[in-house]
Design brief:
By secondary structure, this protein is mostly beta strands. It contains one helix and ten strands, in the order βββαβββββββ. The strands form three sheets. A five-stranded antiparallel beta sheet has the order 4-9-8-7-6, with no helix packed on it. A hairpin with a 6-residue loop joins strand 1 and strand 2. The longest helix is centred in the N-terminal third of the chain and has 6 residues. It is globular and about 35 Å long. It starts with a strand and ends in a 5-residue tail after the last strand.
Length: 115
Amino acid sequence: MRYTGSCHCGNVKFEVEGNITGAVMCNCSICRRKGVRMAFFPRSALTLLMPEDKLASYTFNKHVIHHRFCPTCGIHTHGDGVDPKGNAMAAVNINCIENIDVDALPVQHYDGRSL
């Protein structure tokens, strides 16, 4: 399935191909503050519908995850990183996706605070 999403102001737009069957919520220092619900996809499944230079990026700690957000409205749309096998991954903020009921999806809690 192809999903379309955006930040609040619409400057950051994307499509992602795959199935969203649940969400992950992490309690690390940044995810807890952002309150995002994530779904993970291969990075190749995420297509930006605007130039990548329209995104802002933030890294912290080990600097391996690039937290991407709109510099205008501040909404975090996704993160770029790699999985334990070294594959490029995208953690998409499903709260930014149109036409899905995020409250109906099961949530898996991830203890990122203890890492």
